[in-house]
Write a structure and sequence with these properties.
Blueprint: H1 3-9, E1 18-31, E2 37-50, E3 54-58, H2 65-73, E4 80-85, E5 88-89, H3 93-96, E6 99-102, H4 114-124, H5 129-143, H6 147-152, H7 160-171, E7 178-182, H8 190-205, E8 209-213, H9 217-223, E9 226-231, E10 234-239, H10 241-245, E11 250-257, H11 260-263, E12 271-273, E13 276-280, H12 285-292, E14 297-305, H13 309-319
Helix pairs in contact: 5-7
Length: 326
């Protein structure tokens, strides 16, 4: 962003490595018969996403995730606060040529085929047909859709997972620098989720910035550089996995053989399954290793453990007295 734009927005001059930034971004909707009731969807959200970063936004249903994403896209106007996307104010038309967007529930003209949808998207971006003929097969291959099916099948014949795949392909049609994904794992089977993770990682390897919402916390934990937790419109946590989850708190141990009464000294919460003893180590690993031989036990595995992202998520909500929204 240049200094003139920064001055106009009353924002500091940011480094070029910043992909998007919000400052005290808020959105309030009016409801009721007389539109005299106010409902806050976003409340003073400030965050920064860097170029080339995979950033995950977490939160319950109704937390404001989609509202934030649509605000950044220029679909929804903020009530207050400021933000920039790719160095420009919200809604900049030139920036929209450089972003891709997959909505949570993709909807297209269902009489079109998948190939025709991508042609239509390419035309909207002003991409030459000769370039489209090269780009479309690459995208179909990337998202795991057969070219023959994409050419012949109308979208009304697509499964939810197939619609999700063609939705991702259209989001990438313009080779965007910044990709917004709203619940990209929605409707996908385990194999589809794995493929979606691989696609996101491949986009990251190309230097693209990915900003996405998801309820599948295990996927977020595997692929995100940083995450933010949104609750009731407020940002309550943001950081890398190490920042949020910390380093490992304890060791998990699995041993074979030995006498339970002796193992209990080292593994108080001892559990027996499939011929193995497992539990949390009470003490140091080197001390346990010296005692296993005396107990006639064999060490199978020992590994550091820390809270999962799901455990962190639930704990943060409980500490604030926030109940399930489902």
């Amino acid at each position: 962003m240049d200094s003139a734009v920064a001055s106009r927005l009353q924002l500091p001059v940011f480094d070029r490595s910043i992909a998007l930034q919000t400052y005290e971004l808020s959105k309030t909707y009016r409801t009721g018969f007389w539109m005299n009731k106010k409902v806050g969807s976003l409340n003073g959200v400030s965050l920064t996403v860097y170029e080339g970063e995979t950033f995950g936004l977490l939160g319950q249903n109704g937390a404001g995730k989609t509202t934030l994403l649509k605000t950044l896209l220029g679909i929804v106007r903020p009530t207050s606060g400021r933000a920039t996307v790719l160095g420009e104010p919200l809604g900049d038309r030139a920036v929209k040529q450089r972003i891709g967007y997959l909505t949570e529930n993709p909807y297209f003209y269902d009489y079109l085929t998948g190939w025709e949808v991508l042609n239509f998207t390419g035309d909207l971006f002003g991409i030459a047909r000769s370039q489209q003929r090269k780009r479309i097969p690459e995208l179909l291959d990337l998202v795991g859709l057969a070219q023959s099916a994409a050419k012949k099948k109308q979208l009304r014949q697509y499964s939810k997972g197939m619609l999700q795949r063609i939705g991702l392909a259209q989001a990438l049609m313009n080779d965007p620098d910044l990709v917004f994904l709203d619940e990209p794992m929605s409707g996908l089977d385990p194999l589809g989720r794995y493929q979606m993770r691989e696609i996101i990682l491949s986009l990251k390897s190309q230097g693209k910035t990915i900003f996405f919402n998801s309820h599948v916390l295990s996927d977020v934990e595997k692929i995100c550089d940083r995450v933010a937790l949104l609750a009731q419109g407020k940002l309550i946590a943001i950081g890398s996995m190490q920042d949020l989850l910390g380093t490992a708190e304890h060791y998990c141990v699995t041993v074979k053989g030995g006498r339970p009464e002796m193992l209990h000294q080292w593994i108080p919460n001892l559990e027996f399954q499939d011929g193995l003893w497992t539990g949390q180590l009470n003490g140091q690993p080197e001390d346990l290793l010296g005692s296993l031989r005396l107990m006639n036990a064999q060490l199978i595995s020992i590994e550091l453990a820390r809270p999962s992202l799901e455990e962190f998520f639930v704990r943060q909500l409980k500490e604030r007295g926030i109940q399930s929204s489902s």
